[in-house]
């Protein structure tokens, strides 16, 4: 059986593009309606790995996914930065004047808020996936309804682009994490990034001491995300992404962080993704 990669989304989605960018264009994917299902597929071993969006440069962090990672035993083994171009897709012959509704994933709608706010007459409908929204319009021949999705979905489902590049900021990208089980996680030859979880005591300066120690070791804190601890009001877990030149730097800072934190856990060491947005990069 050919190994498959679990993705949130369906054929023509940005998750599929991210999987092909990381694993290769011939990679088979297992579509999942939710991120929780992606985690389940990978944890059960029914998928050889998973791709999970974690943040967007316009819409921000996808907070539920940080919780999913924290609650699972999965490892982060890589990342992909994918430039995102969002288009308004219509049935052939339809125009913007014909529209009553716009359907898409909530993160896609957020990315295009400036454009969509110019049309208060349109009802915005949140769906599971960008490409699935396009597929439903084509299969149901839904007049007066558009989808926010990419070029790949337009071509796959033979829809017209009624408005191109409607994201609020031209330099729009989404960061995707590659996830796997601890048993199947590959060992990177030259890791230069790590993802960790921890929480600190609810006392003055506790987080500042952690951040100072990271700076003392000359690591770049590229991401710090807080999210609530269930059952402990106003106390938070922290997800931190750390970039370094050599793995020894990371292991040294880890030793210094242990007495300053609680429940410190390494989610994975991996090679950081290419953050350069270029015209030659597939962005549909």
UniProtKB/TrEMBL annotation:
Q: What class of enzyme is it?
A: lyase
Domain Prephenate dehydratase, by residue range, is 4-181
What are the EC numbers?
4.2.1.51
Is Lyase one of the keywords? yes
The cross-references to InterPro entries, in alphabetical order and at most eight, read: ACT-like_dom_sf, ACT_dom, Chor_mutase/pphenate_deHydtase, Preph_deHydtase
Q: Where is the ACT domain?
A: 195-271
User: Protein name, please?
Assistant: prephenate dehydratase
Species this protein is from: Hymenobacter qilianensis
């Amino acid at each position: 059986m050919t190994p498959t990669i679990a993705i949130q989304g369906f054929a023509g989605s940005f998750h599929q593009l991210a999987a092909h960018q990381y694993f290769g264009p011939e990679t088979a994917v297992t579509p999942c309606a939710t991120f929780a299902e992606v985690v389940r597929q990978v944890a059960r071993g029914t998928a050889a790995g998973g791709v999970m969006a974690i943040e967007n440069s316009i819409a921000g962090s996808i907070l539920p996914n940080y919780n999913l990672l924290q609650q699972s035993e999965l490892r982060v083994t890589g990342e992909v930065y994918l430039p995102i171009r969002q288009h308004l897709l219509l049935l052939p012959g339809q125009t913007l004047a014909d529209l009553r509704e716009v359907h898409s994933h909530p993160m896609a709608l957020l990315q295009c808020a400036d454009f969509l706010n110019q049309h208060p007459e349109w009802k915005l409908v949140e769906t599971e996936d960008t490409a699935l929204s396009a597929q439903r319009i084509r299969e149901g021949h839904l007049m007066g309804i558009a989808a926010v999705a990419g070029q790949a979905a337009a071509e796959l489902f033979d829809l017209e682009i009624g408005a191109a590049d409607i994201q609020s900021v031209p330099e729009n990208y989404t960061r995707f994490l590659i996830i796997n089980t601890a048993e199947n996680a590959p060992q990177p030859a030259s890791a230069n990034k790590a993802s960790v979880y921890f929480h600190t005591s609810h006392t003055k300066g506790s987080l500042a001491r952690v951040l100072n120690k990271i700076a003392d070791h000359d690591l770049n804190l590229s991401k710090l995300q807080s999210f609530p601890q269930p059952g402990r009001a106003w106390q938070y877990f922290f997800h931190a992404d750390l970039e370094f030149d050599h793995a020894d730097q990371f292991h040294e800072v880890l030793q210094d962080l242990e007495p300053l934190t609680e429940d410190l856990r390494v989610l994975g060491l991996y090679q950081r993704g290419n953050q350069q947005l270029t015209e030659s990069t597939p962005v549909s």
